Amino acid sequence: MSSAGSTARRAGSGSWHSERGEGRGTKPQPAPLGSVQGENKVSLKATWTDEESKQPSPPLPGLANRLRAQATALATRPPAPPCADPSPSKESDQTAIHQTTAIRSYYQLIAAAVGNVEWLRFCLNQSLGEIPTNNKGFTAIHFAAQRGKLACLQVLVEEFKFPVDLLTNDSQTPLHLVIHRDNTSVALPCIYYLLEKGAALNVQTCNGSTPLHLAAREGLLDCVKVLVQSGANVHAQDAMGYKPIDFCKIWNHRACARFLKDAMWKKDKKDFAREMGKMKTFKRQLALMEHNYLIEYQGQGCCLHFPFAFPPNTPETLLWQDIFLWREKRGLVFL
Looking at the whole model, is its pTM more than 0.70? Predict the structure, then answer.
């Protein structure tokens, strides 16, 4: 068996050498540096003299060592195989563009969340005016508001013109997201800034909650005061019919409940005064119409003076007498 195997190996080796025109039993020698195989490689010692190559090289700094290592790797790398189409296809270009855009969008959201203004500016300058969102509809301004990053909010609104009332998939605005118990110390400056830039106070989410609902639910008295003083609707109802004061009662936020109760009473009083003003205006208009009618009636030949003397036994005179008596009892005097 061993003799047969050696015979086969010798036969195979002889045929391998015979294809290349070499003799039996000889080994293939490496090609010299000037041969065809060495033409594709770049020699780093081509510009060195023999004396310089024999001397030991002095130690180089770290950057020089890295550059020499990279050059050596490039020199020893085999040539790339030829390809039929050297230019990349359009599909691969589009895929690369989409991947790059997704990465930039992801970095943009992270920069807004952590409050890194310079990183956020860089990512926004690379996004070419687009406003990237995640699967919940959150953009950079929503992440900045959720974490209470006032500097990022200023950059997004003033420099890159982000809408201050931009909605998420759940109809949440940045003003909704900034009102959170984790933002107790940073919520007020963000709320003041958003209101200064024209943020809507009474926008409702998908479940009908306004920013005042969220502030009352969290028990944030300072936020409740700012929203109410800015004109938030204290009687707003969510999808379940609850008002902001109802959440204060449910979660036992007594300070917020007392403030909202007083604000609701003042609001009701102001509404009542407004309605009374409208009623007085209506009465003055009615009196003026009646006065004009009496002047017209006097122009038809009737003698009118106060107390008005109407001809008796006439339905019109009886009607006017009833009108004047009714007005006199209620203190409505003619102009």
Answer: no
